[in-house]
């Protein structure tokens, strides 16, 4: 029987007592390795190629996503860039329109230059099959999307991908493997910004690519060795440590998110709340079917831009900062931060406005978080 996810956050299946029995996996802070003799190797030659601490982390993450293998890279963008390097000029991609801003910037400015073609669709609604061309090679999803929290049906899209021999890639950052496993739903590749929930402490950048497909894994390994964006031994250890409490953090931050989302829906100055845990969210039934939770990301619209800016100015316990998925609650302004480089027209199409804020709920006491927003909201409303 497969062990539970909290156990898999802490232990590998074939764990042995080694390294003097160290419970915390050692940091192999070494660039290179001595050879016992000519033509001999300990299995480790140079840390761009192999490093025991990074490999331990890769095994843990592969285990959490149910993948054959995982690669740990220096950031989420390094992971996505590496994956894109495994395709060829002339290849066409169908991609979700509401993606993390950095991913859109990569596709627009780097991948396009390499001769890739893109069709952007709202994958939760649009006709994906109709957009497939002779040179289409992959479909790229986020679900929930960043920041508008749209939910795509992974199983349904994986059937289209299989029928047309396309690689289905899912960025699983927002729910983490604790709540969602796209490979089990038919995806071929999962990517993560490990900086977010996996690391969980707003202190380390990391990224992952996970797959079950040997051919894809082989290409990724070759590219990682060649381009050199593997995660450092110390950062690998920090992410290993973060993952130990993944389940505890996901549960607490989700519980906070549910309460916050419900509270936000009752506020006069809030015109719309995007949280898939709310029963009236468009993707509520799909996420309930394909995931074990709703996560802790909430996007909401204010009545005016001034209100949004004032909230950002006034928060103190909640931090006005980019990023998400850590123990500290962060409030982001997508228009000038995470999605600043997304063309205005596309931002509008996706519904990201100057009245839109994004909350990443942390694990603080919910009363304190609500208390801060309550006093800010009443100060703002009182002045009208
Ligand atoms: C943050 C993020 C990324 C990029 O990851 P970095 O670690 O910041 O490079 C990619 N996808 C999503 C959904 C993200 O939130």
Compose a concise summary of this entry.
The protein has helices spanning 5-8, 52-65, 76-84, 101-111, 154-163, 176-179, 214-227, 233-243, 246-265, 284-290, 305-314, 344-350, 366-382; strands spanning 69-73, 92-96, 117-121, 136-142, 167-171, 189-193, 207-211, 270-274, 297-302, 319-320, 330-332, 356-360. With 384 residues, it is an alpha/beta fold.
Topology overview:
Blueprint lengths: L4 H4 L43 H14 L3 E5 L2 H9 L7 E5 L4 H11 L5 E5 L14 E7 L11 H10 L3 E5 L4 H4 L9 E5 L13 E5 L2 H14 L5 H11 L2 H20 L4 E5 L9 H7 L6 E6 L2 H10 L4 E2 L9 E3 L11 H7 L5 E5 L5 H17 L2
Parallel strand pairs: 2-3, 2-4, 4-5, 5-6, 10-11
Antiparallel strand pairs: 1-7, 6-7, 8-9, 9-12, 11-12
Helix pairs in contact: 2-8, 3-4, 11-13
The structure holds pyridoxal-5'-phosphate.
Pyridoxal-5'-phosphate binds next to α3 and α4.
């Amino acid at each position: 029987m497969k062990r539970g996810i909290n156990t898999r956050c802490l232990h590998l299946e074939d764990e042995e007592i080694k390294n003097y029995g160290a419970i915390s996996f050692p940091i192999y802070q070494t660039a290179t390795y001595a050879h016992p003799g000519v033509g001999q190797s300990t299995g480790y030659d140079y840390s761009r190629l192999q490093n025991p601490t990074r490999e331990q982390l890769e095994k843990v993450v592969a285990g959490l996503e149910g993948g054959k293998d995982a690669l740990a890279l220096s950031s989420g963008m390094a992971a996505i860039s590496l994956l894109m390097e495994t395709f060829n000029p002339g290849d066409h991609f169908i991609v979700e329109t509401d993606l993390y801003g950095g991913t859109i910037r990569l596709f627009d400015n780097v991948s396009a230059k390499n001769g890739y073609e893109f069709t952007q669709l709202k994958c939760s609604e649009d006709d994906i099959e109709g957009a497939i061309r002779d040179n289409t090679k992959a479909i790229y999803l986020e679900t929930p999307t960043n920041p508008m929290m749209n939910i795509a049906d992974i199983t349904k899209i994986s059937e289209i991908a299989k029928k047309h021999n396309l690689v289905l890639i899912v960025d699983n950052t927002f729910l983490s493997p604790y709540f969602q496993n796209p490979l089990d739903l038919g995806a071929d590749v999962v990517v993560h910004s490990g900086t977010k929930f996996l690391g969980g402490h707003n202190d380390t950048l990391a990224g992952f690519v996970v797959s079950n497909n040997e051919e894809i894994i082989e290409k990724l390994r070759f590219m990682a060795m060649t381009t050199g964006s593997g995660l450092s031994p110390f950062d690998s250890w920090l992410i290993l440590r973060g993952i130990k409490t993944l389940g505890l953090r996901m549960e607490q931050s989700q519980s906070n998110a549910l309460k916050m989302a419900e509270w936000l829906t009752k506020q006069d100055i809030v015109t719309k709340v995007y949280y898939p845990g709310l029963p009236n969210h468009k993707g509520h039934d799909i996420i309930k079917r394909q995931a074990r939770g709703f996560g802790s990301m909430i996007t909401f619209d204010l009545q005016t831009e001034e209100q949004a800016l004032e909230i950002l100015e006034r928060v103190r316990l909640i931090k006005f900062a980019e990023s998400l998925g850590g123990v500290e609650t962060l409030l982001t302004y997508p228009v000038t931060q995470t999605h600043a480089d997304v063309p205005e027209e596309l931002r509008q199409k996706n519904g990201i406005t100057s009245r839109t804020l994004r909350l990443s709920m942390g694990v603080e006491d919910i009363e304190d978080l609500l208390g801060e927003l309550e006093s800010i909201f009443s100060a703002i409303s009182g002045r009208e």
